[in-house]
Amino acid sequence: MEAPESRVHYSRWEDNSQDEVSVAAVSSTEASGCKAVFRKLCTGKLGIAVKVLGGVALFWAIFILGYVTGYYVHKCK
Fold first, then answer.
1. Record's GO cellular component, any one (predicted)?
2. 3-state percent helix, strand, coil for the chain, nearest multiple of 5
3. Which of 2, 40, 54, 59 has minimal CB crowding within 10 Å?
């Protein structure tokens, strides 16, 4: 039987007198499910397709945002 993975969260308050550390156990099924989705979407031919489509979508989003911004900045009165 494998030990469950643990997630450690450390947050520091503004004054150095209080530090908070919390540890949460991650079930192996949750971790393996995330890894399976990652492997499926980020590797191989499907991973390349997802990255290309994400890049194209990001390009068009930035292009449209720049176009609209430029339109309003350079708009004649």
1. cell surface
2. 60, 20, 20
3. 2
Looking up tokens 């540890």, which residue turns up? Answer: 23
Residue 25, pLDDT > 80, answer no
Domains of the chain: total: 2
Whether residues 53 and 25 share a domain: the answer is: no
Q: Do residue 3 and residue 37 come from a single domain?
A: yes
Please indicate, yes or no, whether residues 61 and 31 belong to a single structural domain of this protein: no
E-assigned strand segments in 1-77: 5-12, 19-26
CA angle 52, 54, 55 (to 5 degrees): 65
pLDDT at 42: 84
Domain residues for the domain of 13 are 1-42
As a whole number, mean pLDDT of residues 25-29 equals: 63
